[in-house]
């Protein structure tokens, strides 16, 4: 998939090295922890299975012209509030924060959700992650409530995609 500035490649085992490099970025590691190569390999395989099983998953985002690895994002199914829900997320390298790439990844994910006929998409982040919350609001998500995820307080947002 391509957007105005991005080439989005579905993550699978063949992209383990790039996924690992991405998660070495200090701005991404701050939110997701420092991954080992083995963790990146397991996660890439899991995302690849998600694409096959569910028709959704995360992409790696590269700049269309330079080829630079900028981030990742996309859709996945998550158990949220006791239900399996379609979730969207993004992570952008710290050097590119504030450049609109997270919003662009989010718009691409919402376009895919609409193509798939989804009625709703949720997004969540740590309550103090103001940058991610701002992206959710730019994408017209509505704040729902805080909840505990992995023992930490997270903010849940949702968007209705209509009938």
UniProtKB/TrEMBL annotation:
<dbReference type="InterPro" id="IPR051531">
    <property type="entry name" value="N-acetyltransferase"/>
</dbReference>
<dbReference type="InterPro" id="IPR000182">
    <property type="entry name" value="GNAT_dom"/>
</dbReference>
<keyword id="KW-0808">Transferase</keyword>
<protein>
    <submittedName>
        <fullName>GNAT family N-acetyltransferase</fullName>
        <ecNumber>2.3.-.-</ecNumber>
    </submittedName>
</protein>
<dbReference type="Pfam" id="PF13302">
    <property type="entry name" value="Acetyltransf_3"/>
</dbReference>
<feature type="domain" description="N-acetyltransferase">
    <location>
        <begin position="6"/>
        <end position="163"/>
    </location>
</feature>
<dbReference type="InterPro" id="IPR016181">
    <property type="entry name" value="Acyl_CoA_acyltransferase"/>
</dbReference>
<dbReference type="GO" id="GO:0016746">
    <property type="term" value="F:acyltransferase activity"/>
</dbReference>
<keyword id="KW-0012">Acyltransferase</keyword>
